[in-house]
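Narrative summary of target 7.
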Amino acid sequence: AAELAAQLCKIDGVKLVFTGPYFHEFVTELPRAKEVLEALEQAGILGGLEIPEGVLWCATEKATKAELDRAVSIVKEVLAK
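Modeled conformation, tokenized:
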């Protein structure tokens, strides 16, 4: 989760909502969240859950670095449009 959060927060407009410690889940502000989550879903990735504060993400040790990198790449691609 820490790796995913760090990579997502390198994308313009994406930042952590809560600064406290977390384990598997964290919340980010995410511009154009619906578009991003739809693109992830089309790629077969469960991207996150929209909540009032932003998007709730979850990543565990079962997700490989390649899978996380792919998700981050899709987020970057959608937000670059």
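Helices lie at 2-8, 33-42, 65-80.
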